[in-house]
């Protein structure tokens, strides 16, 4: 059995978060009744003239700047000709010979190894509509609400060698476009999706193998599983002495398989030519300087700063910076309290609550809890007002109600007992009630200390200061 190396390139489609479509004023609102966000331009009516959306050009430029691309001050829209029911004009307006961005890169890290993935080009295009195939009926419908929605397509070099690298690249891109605010990042609605080109070649060779294209993958998990399956499928084909067929395949997430969609033995001839209705796009030097100044702190830089603040490992920091909303929330709280302890609360109980309640961890606007409340929770634990256990116990209520922790625990009578005499009384009571365990402890069974701590916490209803409990127990049991 030969040893093979995977060669993977990704074409990522990012829907730009503009209020209107790329060449008309129709809204881009998702979920509207079919064919309600449509006009003469996006429905391809003869004689309708497209007018480029400047905000979309601005957003596309920001993506190029954030990925170290060369920004072409002059770019051209072209007609990409093909026929499909949801493409009423018979062509898609895209970019071909002179895209808006070229020759960038993105650094990714897998298994503590940093790798640079080249970006061939970033071009703008309008999305097609959507075919709806009615179940139980021999009929299909076309919804043009999505037709004309502005996209950028980010085309990578075939530099990735595993599904893990592909997912790392996708996650890095996702973080960038959401930090920039140019995409809402809603993968379920198709705002961020990709096609994966996968081929195999014998280890040590330079020539590429025959590739297959996996279409419209819209979750990180599906990208990983689809590529892993396709690598295994192609290896089985080659090991059997057969040839991989160049084709487009669809991934079935339920069966975890890919299936042929259409043959693609030769590259399509889309007969690109410059769109005669749209003038070349020109970006002035003044606009370029202004847009460069708009770039926010990007995830890679923010992760490095958070690592210095908290001392936490990179894997945990990646979770903190994956979405700008969560990173902003953490940083606001960390400025008011201990950064590492704040991060641990975010990564533990806060994300747990988001998961349990089905709310987005990327959108703190959906939560009742504010950064000030999280910081105060850290502070009152540090001050000994409550124990870490009580903090964990009340976190769900604090998250749900938005209450400030100090007022909450005082109102509920949950303030920690730090009075030495009161704790000493509880310690004496527990020791007196458990003579056999005391003798066993003195006989060498020191693990019984946890039994005594538990009994004291039961007597004090969990309010005793754990540090004082352990200190007094150690003295009295000696």
UniProtKB/TrEMBL annotation:
Residue ranges occupied by any Asn/Gln amidotransferase domain in the UniProt entry: 328-477
Catalytic activity: L-aspartyl-tRNA(Asn) + L-glutamine + ATP + H2O = L-asparaginyl-tRNA(Asn) + L-glutamate + ADP + phosphate + 2 H(+); L-glutamyl-tRNA(Gln) + L-glutamine + ATP + H2O = L-glutaminyl-tRNA(Gln) + L-glutamate + ADP + phosphate + H(+)
One of the Pfam families matching this protein, by short name: GatB_N
EC number: 6.3.5.-
SMART domains per UniProt: GatB_Yqey (SM00845)
A Gene Ontology molecular function term of the record: ATP binding
GO biological process, one term: translation
Enzyme class: ligase
Protein's UniProt keywords contain Chaperone: no
Keyword terms of this UniProt record: ATP-binding, Ligase, Nucleotide-binding, Protein biosynthesis, Transferase
Alphabetized InterPro entries for the sequence: Asn/Gln-tRNA_amidoTrfase_suB/E, Asn/Gln-tRNA_Trfase_suB/E_cat, Asn/Gln_amidotransferase, Asn/Gln_tRNA_amidoTrase-B-like, GatB, GatB_C_1, GatB_Yqey_C_2, Gln-tRNA_amidoTrfase_suB_CS
Family from the record: Belongs to the GatB/GatE family. GatB subfamily.
PANTHER family linked to this entry: GLUTAMYL-TRNA GLN AMIDOTRANSFERASE SUBUNIT B MITOCHONDRIAL AND PROKARYOTIC PET112-RELATED (PTHR11659), GLUTAMYL-TRNA(GLN) AMIDOTRANSFERASE SUBUNIT B, MITOCHONDRIAL (PTHR11659:SF0)
Function: Allows the formation of correctly charged Asn-tRNA(Asn) or Gln-tRNA(Gln) through the transamidation of misacylated Asp-tRNA(Asn) or Glu-tRNA(Gln) in organisms which lack either or both of asparaginyl-tRNA or glutaminyl-tRNA synthetases. The reaction takes place in the presence of glutamine and ATP through an activated phospho-Asp-tRNA(Asn) or phospho-Glu-tRNA(Gln).
Subunit structure: Heterotrimer of A, B and C subunits.
Identification of the protein by name: Aspartyl/glutamyl-tRNA(Asn/Gln) amidotransferase subunit B
